[in-house]
Write a structure and sequence with these properties.
This protein is an alpha/beta fold and about 450 residues long. Helix 1 packs across helix 2, helix 2 crosses helix 5 and helix 5 packs antiparallel against helix 6. The protein contains 15 helices and 15 strands.
Length: about 450
């Protein structure tokens, strides 16, 4: 893997260019550039029939090392891989494409495969969507007391899609799988009726796909609520389209909106998603980071640990050190969620902890704000604190960073060590018959 170095960031040729998206219809010409054979390209198209594909000119021209493709980590980050799905599934779709089967037949097979991929992990559609007034609130999740997630309808895409994305179901065109809302006043009214809510996270998709006037419609009503302490924006835009904050037509207006949030007395937390050090190298990223920080916003960084892309402690060490140097705050290393092609990308929990520890021990205290490896599971965010031996038994030491039941937050618990486990559901309790969270109440909020 190519690691970021301490030299000055490289110049970016495409800084002033207009955004251009590449989708499935461009796959053949792009995968030819990666040196794939016709059969390999057909298999990639088959995978892209099930899982979403979208990238853009900045990623293609500035981030991917085409001389190393298809093994380049950024290429693997955005381009479907022929073995991401079970071989028999890929073969069935490829056969349909080869014989130019009717679109309905291809889509029906794709939907059958999607249904087995746990499109909405952690019970997010059934357990996290609250009822209010006459029914459920579209596009909202309220899992933890203090935090509401909102999925604006206009933010249901991204500048480019990550191959491992746990939100993949938002992008495949099935309305039954989407989380999307467009009633900013309903959002405000729900929060006002729930004084325990102090933080709102705008997510998607990517909230930074929206233009400034649209984002403003959602944000401004929240500034009137004294109970709100922080507004969070979850985004991959700094990595995939930093022009959003530098050269796009509404860049200055967007930054003025950020300033308005801060001046209102709220914390604006810009939750930036960086998966690999190369995403931090271009000069325009450094410029965008400076402009966002100048508004008073705090940039926190997070990403999942992904096999074949960033499963190396040196990668994380370089990311965290570079982020601190740029004035950002390392926040989370996540574990790949139990959805989509998890089997392809997941790193066993024991190895994940080793990678986290080996990176963590080489950074200064300023980078040790980062937490992980963390699983965003059904009961809450579970952190793997380590692998140790207790009473002669090898175990995982764990705790809840956040939980549906606040009483469980911060309390250690133990699981039997399993070298193959990649998720909370793979674990069995140690020294007890049940986990502390096994008796949680999962009734949706009202």
């Amino acid at each position: 893997m190519t690691l970021v170095n301490d030299a000055a960031p490289t110049a970016v040729r495409s800084t002033g260019r207009k955004f251009r998206a590449f989708t499935v219809k461009h796959l053949d010409e792009l995968t030819v550039r990666a040196g794939l054979s016709p059969e390999q390209r057909l298999a990639v198209r088959a995978v892209a029939t099930v899982l979403p594909f979208r990238t853009n000119s900045y990623v293609i021209e500035e981030l991917i090392d085409w001389s190393a493709a298809p093994d380049d980590p950024i290429y693997r980050l955005v381009f479907p891989q022929e073995d991401m799905l079970p071989a028999e599934d890929v073969a069935r779709i490829a056969d349909l494409l080869r014989r130019e089967a009717p679109r309905q037949e291809v889509e029906a097979e794709a939907n059958r495969i999607r249904a087995r991929l746990n499109p909405h992990p952690a019970g997010q559609l059934k357990l996290n969507v609250p009822t209010f007034g006459d029914g459920v609130i579209p596009g909202m999740q309220h899992k933890y007391d203090e935090t509401v997630l909102y999925f604006p309808k206009q933010g249901q895409t991204c500048h480019a899609y990550c191959t491992y994305c746990f939100r993949w179901a938002q992008f495949v065109g099935d309305l039954d799988l989407k989380l999307a809302g467009d009633d900013a006043h309903q959002l405000r009214d729900y929060i006002a009726a729930h004084p325990e809510v102090t933080s709102v996270l705008f997510t998607g998709g990517d909230a930074m796909i929206m233009g400034e006037p649209v984002l403003r419609r959602y944000v401004e009503p929240l500034l009137e609520l004294e109970q709100i302490e922080s507004i969070r924006i979850g985004t991959k835009s700094l990595a995939y389209w930093p022009q959003k904050f530098v050269t796009d037509p509404d860049a200055d207006d967007m930054l003025r909106l950020f300033e308005q949030v801060v001046e209102s007395g709220k914390n604006l937390a810009f939750m930036a998603h960086f998966s690999h050090p190369r995403e931090l190298e271009p000069a325009i990223v450094h410029q965008a980071v400076r402009r966002i920080r100048d508004t008073g916003a705090v940039i926190r960084t997070q990403a999942p640990l992904i096999r074949s892309i960033n499963d190396d402690p040196k990668v994380w060490e370089h990311m965290w050190r570079t982020q601190v140097r740029m004035g950002m705050v390392p926040y989370y290393m996540f574990v790949e969620r139990d959805t989509g092609p998890q089997d392809y990308f997941a790193v066993p929990l024991g190895r994940a902890w080793e990678i986290f520890r080996d990176a963590y021990k080489h950074v200064s205290g300023l980078a040790r704000t980062v937490r992980g490896p963390s699983m965003s599971a059904t009961p809450g965010k579970v952190c793997v604190d380590g692998v140790t031996e207790v009473a002669g038994e090898k175990v995982f030491a764990l705790h809840f960073i956040q939980c549906r039941d606040p009483e469980l937050v911060g309390k250690p618990f133990f699981a039997q060590y399993d070298p193959t486990a990649v998720w909370l559901d793979d674990l069995k309790p140690a020294f007890a018959d049940r986990f502390p969270h096994d008796d949680l109440d999962y009734t949706p909020r009202k």
